[in-house]
Amino acid sequence: MVFNGKPQHTNVCFWYLPPAIRCMEDGEERRRRLHKVAPIIKARMMEYGTTMVSYQPQGNKVNFFRMVISNPAATFEDINFLIEEIERLGQDL
Q1: pLDDT higher for 10 or 34?
Q2: Sheet of 54-58: strands edge to edge?
Q3: Disulfide: which of 3, 30, 79, 82 matches 24 by Cβ 3.0-4.6 Å?
Q4: What number of CA atoms fall less than 13 Å from residue 22's CA on the CB side?
């Protein structure tokens, strides 16, 4: 990642779909289960002390992760670690 010295901020919003939810048809049950995913993963992150990312709903959308990257020293490895940690902590949901 190359930085030009100017502050760079990235706001990334996304859902993590655990394996058990990926094949479900879109509907109320899928949305109900997906709504619980981000809060559970965040709680596990705090319990293990590995990392932390925020989440929120928006309008009629269920909870999603909201990651703001404002540290110019952040690397691809840092982002990959976060994504891998979300996957690790959410596999059983």
Answers
A1: 34
A2: 10-14, 61-69, 54-58
A3: 30
A4: 9
CA pair distance 84, 45, nearest whole angstrom? 12
- Mean of the per-residue pLDDT values for the chain? 88
**How far apart (Å, rounded) are the C-alpha atoms in residues 31 and 78?**
29
CA distance 52 to 93: 18
Q: Where are the beta strands (DSSP E) in 1-50?
A: 10-14
Q: What's the pTM?
A: 0.82
Compare 68 and 42 and report the one with higher pLDDT: 42
Q: What is the mean pLDDT of residues 50-76?
A: 88
So what's the pLDDT on residue 1? 47
Q: Which stretches of 1-93 are assigned E, i.e. beta strand?
A: 10-14, 54-58, 61-69
Give the SS3 label for residue 64: strand
Other CB atoms within 10 A of residue 6 CB: 6
